C-alpha cells in the first residue's frame, strides 16, 4: 500500500483526512463526494461542479469511453481532464458495474488499466467481480479469488503515478470481506473501495451494509483510504463515515433527478408530493415545487440534480464539522431517527463499538445521551474497560447517584449509562455527559454492567449502590453481594 492518505482527526472510526492524488497534483479533503459523470450526458458539467459546488474529485466510467465511437479518439488525444474540462482529481471505473449488470464485458484488467493510464486518469480501477449480496458461499469465494487475481495483475501493469483502486468484495460474508480487505492491503495498490453494496442500499439493508463495511475495515490497515462504491444517498453518509468510509460516489443525484426524485438527509421525496421544499439551497429558495413541476423535463432534471448535489455536499460539510467538534455519533443518531432502516444501521454500527473505540478520541465535545442506543457507544465500552484499572480505596464503597455518605470509606459517583467512577474523574470526558432526567432501560443496564465489572474485580470490597429507582432489568444484573439502596424510597 502506498502512503497517500493522512488522517487529521477521528470521531468513532470516522475521520477527516487528506488523500494526495499525485497525478492530478491535488490533495482531496475527505470525506469527499465524487459525482459520477456520464461522458455522454452531462446535466451538470464538471466545470460547474468545480466552480459552483467546490468539487475536488469526480468519477467517470472508462469502459464507456473505451467503447464509445464518438469519445474514444478525442479522449485518447486530448486526455480526460481536457475532455471533461475539470482540473481536480478524476477517478475512472473499469466496467465492473456493466459486468455486474449485463454479465460480460470485452476488456481485460491490463487493457482497461492501460487505457485509463493513457487517457490521464488519476485513480484507475481493475476489472473486479462485484458479487451481489446473498449468493452461495461457493460463488462468493470463487469470484473473490478472481478479483484477487485481477488485483495481482493490476499491481503488475505499468501505470506511472496513477493511483489504483483495490476493490474489496465478498458479498454478505463478513469473514470473506475481512479476508478480502487484508488481501487488498497486501496488493501494493492504493485506494480501497468496498464493492457491490448498491443492492444492499437499494433495499435499505443498512444493518447488512454496516456489518460488511466493519468487516472490510477489520481486514484493512487503519491508514487505508476507503471508498464506499456506489453510495450516493446523503441519508447514509453519516453512518458510513462513522464506520470509516472516506469516499462516496453519487450517480444518484442525476438518476433520481431524471425521475423527479428529490433527496433529503432523511429520505427521498417525489416532486409531485411536495408542497414545500424543506431545504435552503439556491434551487429551493428561488423556486416552489409547483414552479419546478411546471418546467420542461430537461430544466426540471437540471434543477433537481443541482438540489440533490447541494444536499449531498451540505451533508458532507455537516459531517466534517461534526468530526471536528466530536459529535459525529450524535449526528448518526439523529439521521438514524429519520428512517427505521437507518436505525437498524445505527444499531448494527453499535455492535462494532469496540472496533470503533480504537480510534475514537478520548476527549471530545460533551457526550449527549439521546436514547437507549447511546448506552452502547464506544465511550461506554471504554469506560467499562477503564473500570478494570480503577481501584477503590478502603473496604466499603458507596456508588451513588446522590450525595456522599460518611459511613463509607469512599464514595463514587454513579451515572447511567457509564456506571460508577471516582469523583475526581467527574470533570473529564465523557462523564460530563448531558443526560435526560428519564433514561430508557438500556442506560441503567449499561451502568449496572459497569458496576458488575467493578465489583467482580474487587472481591474483598463491600459495595453499596444508591440508585434513583433503577428498573428491575438493571438491578437483576448486579452481583448479589451488592447492597441496594433506592434513593427514591429514602425521600
Ligand atoms: Zn434544495
User: What small molecules are bound in this structure?
Assistant: zinc ion
Described by the principal axes of the CA atoms, the overall outline is elongated
CATH top-level class of the largest domain: Alpha Beta
CATH architecture of the largest domain: Alpha-Beta Barrel
Radius of gyration: 26 Å
* Number of distinct beta strands: 18
Query: What is the CATH H-level superfamily of the largest domain?
Result: Queuine tRNA-ribosyltransferase-like
**Largest beta-sheet details:** 6 strands, parallel
**Poorly predicted ranges (pLDDT <50, ≥5 residues)?**
none
Pathway: tRNA modification; archaeosine-tRNA biosynthesis
Binding site for Zn(2+): 279, 281, 284
EC number: 2.4.2.48
Cofactor: Zn(2+)
Give a quick set of tags describing it:
22 helices; elongated; 491 residues; 18 strands; alpha/beta; six-stranded parallel sheet; TIM Barrel; binds zinc ion; five-stranded mixed sheet; 2 domains
How would you describe what is shown here?
There is one protein chain. The protein is α/β, with parallel strands linked by helices and 491 residues long. The chain has 2 domains: 5-351, TIM Barrel, CATH 3.20.20.105; 366-490, no CATH class. Helices cover 43% and strands 16% of the residues. The chain has helices spanning 46-53, 62-66, 72-78, 80-84, 96-102, 109-119, 137-156, 174-186, 198-202, 206-219, 237-243, 252-258, 282-286, 289-293, 297-325, 328-336, 340-351, 353-357, 378-387, 441-457, 472-475, 487-490, and strands spanning 5-11, 14-21, 26-30, 32-37, 57-61, 89-93, 123-124, 163-164, 192-194, 226-228, 247-250, 261-263, 268-270, 396-400, 410-415, 419-422, 462-467, 483-486. The strands form 5 sheets. A 6-stranded parallel sheet has the order 6-5-4-11-10-9. Strands 16-15-14-17-18 form a 5-stranded mixed sheet. α21 (472-475) links the parallel β17 and β18 (483-486). The model has no long low-confidence stretch (mean pLDDT 96). Residues 277, 279, 281, 283-284, 307, 310-311 line the site of zinc ion (ZN).
